[in-house]
Design goal:
Number of strands: 12
Structural class: alpha/beta
Oligomer: single chain
Distance between the termini: 42 Å
Order of helices and strands: HEEEHEEHEHHHEHEHEEHHHEEH
Strand order of the largest sheet: 6-7-8-3-9-10-12-11
Largest sheet: 8 strands, mixed
Helix content: 25-40%
Shape: globular
Number of helices: 12
């Protein structure tokens, strides 16, 4: 099987802009460029981790791919089909094959519905498993580690981790190929986080699922991802396989994020890189490189020109949007953040 046939997701130059309206006539006076030219691909059965600070556009990417938000530009191919131009008849099948897990395990569940109704609702809407809906719901509950005896309970009767398992079961109800996981463990205790991550990995192995895993915790992303894309102010600034990115980050923003991961080894000294200033507004992004106002390595050129994402190795497996990737200064910055 060649690389093209293994590719399930192909996103090219994705843009999602929101209008700023003002005045009595609500005229458009500007745009919030939440996502501004994002491209990536995901192979079948693999996980892409999408990371970055809050407000960088990660969740907007996920919601745009789900078509919960209308894309301003770009393309999204899913299993060979261009999703943004799918006819209404084909959209129903797309909704079955692509599902989303949400960050808040309580707010994403209807408090007035029982677990049976919550998990079974997709089956009812798509007219799947007719005549054996309750049996299918019980099977899904067992698959995610919940007791089928609790079918008639309500969300408030479960713990946070159990509620997230209900969300997983609901996402799996229609046998999807692709799951968009929007910070699915950030609201949970650390011990529960590991249980949910292990569950997602087991399900991926059993069902050959493909994940887009959105998170701000790089330690969690390292554990579950095959590839990692780092976002800043609506752009991907670095993109590489997991091992390469965590051992040899090339963009100053990635280096600063990795320096913030708590170090479990007591005898290892690591200097935290604290970025200056605030994240600029996506409605008024800086000129040149969007990261240059906070970058410890910024030069005059960075404020005037914006380097696009480019391959930085011969194999084309490591991409970064920075001129400093081969500079001695980035090596020094990386060494002080990852020194023993």
């Amino acid at each position: 099987m060649d690389e093209t046939s293994k590719k399930l997701i192909e996103v090219k130059d994705l843009k999602t802009h929101f209008p700023i309206r003002a005045g009595v006539l609500s005229r458009t006076v500007g745009w919030v460029k939440a996502v501004d030219g994002v491209s990536f691909s995901i192979q079948r059965g693999q996980t892409l981790g999408l990371v970055g600070e809050s407000g960088c556009g990660k969740t907007t990417v996920g919601r745009t791919l789900m078509r919960l938000i209308r894309a301003t530009g770009g393309s999204f191919e899913f299993d060979g089909d261009e999703v943004f131009s799918l006819p209404a008849g084909r959209m129903k099948r797309f909704r079955q094959e692509v599902q989303m897990m949400f960050q808040d395990p309580f707010g994403s569940l209807n408090p007035r519905m029982t677990v049976e109704d919550i998990i079974g609702e997709p089956l009812l809407v798509h007219r799947v498993a007719q005549g054996r809906r309750r049996q299918r719901v019980a099977e899904l509950m067992e698959k995610v580690g919940l007791s089928p005896q609790h079918l008639n309970r309500y969300p408030h009767e479960f713990s946070g981790g159990q509620r997230q398992r209900i969300g997983v079961a609901r996402a799996l109800a229609l046998d999807p190929k692709f799951l968009i996981c929007d910070e699915p463990v950030s609201a949970l205790d650390v011990s529960i986080q590991s249980q949910i991550i292990n569950l997602l990995q087991d399900l991926q192995s059993q069902l050959n699922l493909t994940y887009l895993f959105i998170a701000h915790d790089l330690a969690v992303v390292e554990h579950i991802s095959d590839w990692v894309a780092v976002m800043y102010l609506g752009h991907i600034v670095e993109y590489a396989n997991r091992d390469t990115l965590y051992t040899n980050p090339l963009h100053p923003y990635t280096v600063s994020l990795l320096s913030a991961i708590p170090e479990p080894t007591p005898n290892r000294q690591k200097k935290r890189i604290v970025l200056k200033g605030e994240v600029p507004s996506p409605s008024n992004p800086p000129s040149g490189c969007p990261f240059h106002p906070r970058c410890p390595l910024a030069e005059k050129r960075c404020a005037e020109e914006n380097q696009r994402l480019e391959a930085k190795d011969a194999s084309g497996q490591h991409w970064a949007a920075c001129w400093k990737t081969t500079d001695e200064k980035i090596r020094q910055l990386r060494s002080q953040s990852f020194s023993d």
